[in-house]
């Protein structure tokens, strides 16, 4: 069976980080240490959920 991709955009990242502002998500996702997006769509960048979850777990205190 094919592996199902789990993707997130900036809206989901906002929720994952506790409802931070859109501006703060933009700042965070543009950090040099933030995972690279796997695609850029008309609505914006998308990332692999597991990459973002790992990044948050490793740096949670740094992004609040």
UniProtKB/TrEMBL annotation:
Protein's recorded name: AlpA family phage regulatory protein
UniProt lineage: Bacteria, Bacillati, Actinomycetota, Actinomycetes, Micromonosporales
